[in-house]
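question for whoever is on the cluster today: can someone run the full assembly for these? two chains, 836 residues total. i dont have access anymore since they changed the login thing
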Amino acid sequence: MSIVTAEIIAIGDELLYGQIMDTNSHWISQELDAVGVRVVRKTTVGDNRTDILTAFEEASKRANLILITGGLGPTQDDLTKPLLAEYFGCEIVEVPEAVAAVSAYFTRRGREMTRLNILQGHLPTCCTYVPNEVGTAPGMWFEQKGCYWMSMPGVPHEMKKLVKDFVLPKLSQVFDLPVIYHKLIKTAGIGESWLADLIKDWENALPNHIRLAYLPSLGHVKLRLTAFGEDKKVLATEVDEQIHGVLPLISSYVYGYDEETLETAIGKLLKNAGKTLALAESCSGGYISHLITTVPGSSNYLRGTLVPYHNDLKEQLLGVSSATLMQHGAVSEETVREMATGIKKLFGADFGLASSGIAGPDGGSPDKPVGTVWIACAGPDFVEAKLLQLTQDRMINIQLTGVAVLNLLRICFLKHNK
Amino acid sequence: MSIVTAEIIAIGDELLYGQIMDTNSHWISQELDAVGVRVVRKTTVGDNRTDILTAFEEASKRANLILITGGLGPTQDDLTKPLLAEYFGCEIVEVPEAVAAVSAYFTRRGREMTRLNILQGHLPTCCTYVPNEVGTAPGMWFEQKGCYWMSMPGVPHEMKKLVKDFVLPKLSQVFDLPVIYHKLIKTAGIGESWLADLIKDWENALPNHIRLAYLPSLGHVKLRLTAFGEDKKVLATEVDEQIHGVLPLISSYVYGYDEETLETAIGKLLKNAGKTLALAESCSGGYISHLITTVPGSSNYLRGTLVPYHNDLKEQLLGVSSATLMQHGAVSEETVREMATGIKKLFGADFGLASSGIAGPDGGSPDKPVGTVWIACAGPDFVEAKLLQLTQDRMINIQLTGVAVLNLLRICFLKHNK
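^ ran it for u. tokens below:
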């Protein structure tokens, strides 16, 4: 088994001029990494003959696999197909099967096919035609001197389907790929360096064929375990054993694995227990409600949300006492506790969550600087509150509050709902 | 004046393996495009000596300007600095000014500087030291045979500050850049091809030195006018005249210019008129409230938001009649009108906005398929409602509803609030 190296080439002026962000190359990197192919370079070039041919030439010297996106539109500024034909020294001819596929695509949509669209079914003779079921530009697969090439359209969902349906299966045929097994442990409520400190002994004792990576994002840290070997089942078992070993050290921070998000995780907790939730968001302004409602089926457990952006609404609807507001202010432990209890009662839910803070950039004081946020969770027979000291950035404060509130619910739920 | 060509090189294994998305190169592309520098290639390579040196070598043959991000950390796997020294054939020596800056950075944060951090103040003798005020890795500027190089850390906000404070001013010194003037016209509520159709005669009559680009995003289309010439003031006047020419054709879709967003635009309308707003979001689940509250100072005009995710809350809190819900259902013109009127009254606001729809993936019926959304705006003496027929995708439906509701407020405000 030798290492397979890959290069990704993205083609299009719009990528160079910053009109469109190339998210394709990033996604392809992740997919190739997951099957043990080593990406050694990513290149973006414009719709320019010399630049594209140079990129082909250079890539072929370094990589066993070259994945190309873009430049396959029907208009004259799209050069990828003629230049691939030129590079491989072959003609472009009509491929009846490909023309029929383009025609069928338009028929399904009740639209007329133009002369230019018919040309999308003309392909270099030296390529294997790869049908694109969700668009008009076909995929093209080339093989030359042990190097494999795939050209795909730049439209993300078309490219992704071609990679998943054709490229990845093909790679395991033409290459002797390592067997790799990945597992993500999802954590919230702890920073990367603290997490690393908690698990350093476990990490140092990992066997050589299991690697650990820390993937931090706002409020979250993902731990990625990657195992290399001969047999996927064996690797899965080994990784699971390692996870059993580390869990006791970090269990209170772990909300799920792989595709799980904090929103889907708390959704499952609530749904399985048949419990409902209500939100009173002040400084987070509806963001937590938005996170929860992005999950299909969230109406099963979310009763609703109130954003009482002004104190009179906190009093009148949530029943926060004016004495509390006068004495402690809207951003205080007392207020946020009354908000959580109030929304639970008002909406007839099992759990009430609340946030109140100074998101910024204005509204801070020496006592309560920008970034001061109180959050609370009220359950059947408890209220827990927590103080967050966040940043100077309004958007980051809103997002971090969202993660912290959902995580507080998770922790309270596990603690009190046994 | 000759064309300045640039290449952007991003360095780091984490970029190739898909652990981090390279947003830096995209941002740099936009900044260079805005000053008339033509980006001809973007390259990403790993922390590998040969690959980095090859990238330097290749780029120097094609570009007048080479911007490098990443690989400047204090640890041994970060190779950019030693390889730049090797490429330019010079030594790395201590730069007292740079060491002092790193030291001051740590002092400000009350943290201890390590031996590795001190090395960040050691730089190649052939570079100009460029202070990094918001991080520990300095910028390095090189000049060789008419080609200019800048190496910057990969942390986005550090890189951005160096580009804005140093690189862009430097470019106008060392290159004879074209004078360019950009203006963005921001529209909502109309698709790209309809917009293009409305303004095609105007577009065809644009003078040669003024270019138009359509930049579509979810629910929005930006029109970017770019003028090339000798004098920025003259260009600005010419572009403004063109905008005066096109506005009568599209005025009802235009919500602002340049940095304006739909959220800030409606915020200004409300604030200037001294009016307040309340939201009742069902299918949008808090997303519109989140959009509005991302704007600093939004508490001046947003009274608050209710997400009545269940019908009983629509009845009890908003006063939607049970007869309406029974007869027409929650997703109906009648319900959404009562929601908008109800929230306006409940929260004591001047305007009430409401959404109710089937975001999906479940809940659709032949009568009301997934993507059916009703929205309404209630003002002092009117209620306007609108039906949206959106997509199969839950997230896209939520986002498009957000844009449509904010745009409905804008239109109603302009129509009724004269």
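summary bc i know u wont read the tokens: Residues 394-416 of chain A form the longest helix (23 residues). Chain A has three domains: 5-174, 179-257, 262-416.
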